[in-house]
Amino acid sequence: MQISRVQELSNQLYESLLELWNQTGISNPARSDSFEAISHSLRHGGIILCCHIDGSLCGSAWLTHDYRRLYIHHMAVQPNMQNTGIGNLLLQESLSIANSLGYQAKLEVHEDNPAARHLYNKHGFTELNGYLVMINRNSGQKV
Predict the structure, then answer these.
(1) Residue 70 backbone dihedrals phi, psi, to 5 degrees
(2) Which CATH superfamily is domain 2-122 in?
C-alpha cells in the first residue's frame, strides 16, 4: 500500500478518481468536480492524496486550503477495501500536511455516514455546533 501526493492531474488519474468517487457515492455533477476545476486547485496549492495497491487506485483525499485551514474533500476508499486502514492512512497524511503548514483541518461529513464520522472523531474532529452548511451552486457559473 502506497500513499502518494499528486499536484498535477493527468487524464488517467482523473478518470480513476471519478470511478472511485462514483463507486463510493461521493460524486455529484453539481459539485463542479471537472478536470479543469481540480487542476486549478492543484496549481494553487491543492494536493490529491492517492492510495494505490498493486498499481490500482483504492483511496483518495483531495486537499485545498485558504492559508489558515486545510479542507479535506472527497475522502474515499473503494467499498471492498473499507475498514482495512486505508482511510486512516489518508487521514493521517492529511493531518500531517495540515500540521506542517500550521493550518487547522476541516471537513464535511454526511450525518448518515457513521463509519466516516467514527474515523474523524477518532482523529480529533468535532462537530461545529450551531453551524449549518450552506452553498449557492449557481454562483461561479460562467454565463
Answers:
(1) -100, 125
(2) Gcn5-related N-acetyltransferase (GNAT) (3.40.630.30)
- Average pLDDT, integer, range 63-87: 95
Report field, pTM of the whole predicted structure over 0.85: yes
Dist. CA 62–CA 38, nearest whole Å: 9
Rounded CA-CA distance 83/98 in Å is: 24
Query: Measured between alpha carbons, how far is 116 from 126 in angstroms, rounded to an integer?
Result: 12
Q: Where are the beta strands (DSSP E) in 2-143?
A: 2-6, 47-53, 56-65, 69-77, 104-107
- Cα separation, 104 vs 64, whole angstroms: 12
> Cell numbers 492529511 correspond to what residue?
94
Query: SS3 for 50?
Result: strand
Helix (H, G, I), strand (E, B) or coil at 126: coil
Beta strand residue intervals within 69-127, DSSP E: 69-77, 104-107
47, 5 contact by CB (below 8 A): yes
Domain residue extents for the chain: 2-122
* 96-138 pLDDT, tens digit each: 999 999 999 999 998 888 889 999 999 999 998 888 888 887 7
